[in-house]
Design brief:
Distance between the termini: 68 Å
CATH topology of the largest domain: 2-enoyl-CoA Hydratase, Chain A, domain 1
Strand order of the largest sheet: 5-6-7-8-9-10-11
Radius of gyration: 21 Å
Bound molecules: zinc ion
Number of helices: 10
CATH architecture of the largest domain: Alpha-Beta Complex
Helix content: 25-40%
Largest sheet: 7 strands, mixed
Shape: globular
CATH superfamily of the largest domain: 2-enoyl-CoA Hydratase, Chain A, domain 1
Order of helices and strands: HEEEEHHEHEEHEHEHEHHEH
Length: 300
């Protein structure tokens, strides 16, 4: 009977004073020695910026923005679509595209399988047609939880197809970026996606298409240096990291200390890389306003 009680206790996680942990208590741990601050797993989340612990339900209501410090936590593509698109108004495209490990890179095939299992996605972007405040749009939404949002052949191909579909259907295009950069396991095939997506965007924009790029935390490397930076309008979430090379690489290269807010959305806005920084709670209405304006319906 006592053993049963211990088994039940293993469903609980402890919160060390410095660090959040979801690890269950170890078998040999005595119940009376456990820290008192025990909470059921999944019930709470800790802000990685300020350390405040939030009830998961409250955090969801707050669109995963920390109510203490305003940190915009990372969302996966599905959460982002649900938050942005009118209810029931999204049709996914190219859902079956998967990478084939084109270079037979050691360990890549296994890693891909792991990423699929962990994220529930087939690659780091979801594309499709949807509606925002009643406006039909093409969407591409990246997901950092798949391979750190890295751009390989599938991300590049899906984004290019979304751009071309927006062009053919005469629709505005909205892309939410988040990425660590190119997917090194696909080497040059990954880097080629920068040119491919940029060329497709150039054709679309020459044909008069409107492309709104939304930068979310973090957007770095090959994604920032291609389609993320090519928006007619570029919006970022507060605090989002947006740049090409990382801070350490740049500091070592130029041998200078960079400001604390270097590469944040606010720093980029100040230096002319962004058009606006928009809080997550206002993002959908901001996109709706821009689409109103673009289609001649708006009066703002
Ligand atoms: Zn916080």
């Amino acid at each position: 009977m006592f053993r049963d009680l211990f088994q039940k206790k293993k469903k609980y996680a402890t919160i060390p004073s410095q660090r959040w942990s979801n690890e269950p208590a170890s078998d040999d741990e005595q119940p009376q020695e456990r820290p008192k601050r025990e909470i059921p797993e999944g019930l709470m989340n800790k802000c990685s910026k300020c350390g405040t612990i939030h009830y998961s339900k409250e955090l969801e209501k707050n669109l995963k923005v920390c109510s203490n410090c305003g940190y915009h936590m990372r969302l996966n593509a599905i959460e982002r679509i649900v938050m942005t698109v009118d209810e029931g108004k999204f049709t996914e495209m190219d859902a079956g595209l998967e990478s084939i490990d084109p270079l037979n890179f050691p360990g890549y095939a296994q890693k891909l399988e792991q990423q699929k299992m962990n994220s529930g996605l087939r690659d780091a972007v979801i594309t499709g047609q949807g509606e925002i405040d009643g406006h039909p749009v093409m969407l591409a939404v990246m997901s950092f939880d798949f391979f750190s949002g890295s751009m390989g052949s599938v991300v590049g191909e899906k984004i290019t197809r979304a751009i071309e579909a927006a062009d053919e259907r005469g629709l505005p295009l909205i892309m939410f970026s988040t990425s660590g950069g190119a997917r090194m396991q696909e080497s040059i095939i990954s880097l080629m996606q920068m040119a491919k997506t940029s060329a497709a965007l150039a054709r679309y924009q020459e044909n008069g298409g409107l492309y709104i790029s939304v930068i979310t935390d973090p957007t770095m490397g090959g994604v920032s240096a291609s389609f993320a930076m090519l928006g007619d309008i570029i919006i970022a979430e507060p605090g989002a990291l947006f740049g090409f090379a990382g801070r350490i690489v740049i500091e070592q290269t130029i041998r200078q200390k960079l400001p604390d807010n270097f590469q944040t959305a606010e720093f980029n806005l100040e230096h002319g890389q962004l058009d606006m920084v928009t809080h997550r709670k206002d993002m959908k209405s901001m996109l709706g306003d821009l689409l109103d304006y673009h289609t001649g319906k708006g009066g703002f």
